[in-house]
Amino acid sequence: MDEFLQAAIDEAEAGLAEGGIPIGSVLVHFSSEHPQGRIVGRGHNRRIQRGSPTLHGEMDALENAGRLPAKVYAESVIYTT
């Protein structure tokens, strides 16, 4: 299995263990320095845990990535279960 998909599955399992919806995501940056990719953000659905209508797994991963240059986002792929 793809290591990044596995990381997203791990996030989904973490969300389920918290009593939430089991959806996980990782944001992976591919660049000349990291041609194989590296995870720059990870997260899982926290809508139930935080009572949020918008905190889906993808949004959590982006939030946890922090402020990155636009170029990083342009060179990234998000993996979601």
Break the fold down into its secondary structure elements and pairings:
Layout: H1 3-17, E1 24-29, E2 38-44, H2 47-50, H3 57-65, H4 70-74, E3 76-80
Antiparallel strand pairs: 1-2, 1-3
Keywords:
81 residues; 4 helices; alpha+beta; 3 strands; three-stranded antiparallel beta sheet; flat
- The overall strand count is 3
Distance between the termini: 13 Å
Structural category is: alpha+beta
Biggest beta-sheet profile: 3 strands, antiparallel
**Spatial strand arrangement across the major sheet:** 2-1-3
Helical content, roughly?
Answer: 40-55%
The gross shape turns out to be flat
Mean pLDDT: 96
Low-confidence stretches: none
* Percentage beta strand: 15-25%
The radius of gyration is: 13 Å
Q: Secondary-structure element order, as H and E?
A: HEEHHHE
Count of runs of 4 or more consecutive helical residues: 4
General description of the model:
This protein has helices spanning 3-17, 47-50, 57-65, 70-74; strands at residues 24-29, 38-44, 76-80. A hairpin with an 8-residue loop joins strand 1 (24-29) and strand 2 (38-44). With 81 residues, it is an alpha+beta fold. The protein is flat and about 40 Å long.
Q: How would you sum up this structure in a few lines?
A:
The chain is 41% helix and 22% strand. The chain is an alpha+beta fold and 81 residues long. It has a 3-stranded antiparallel beta sheet.
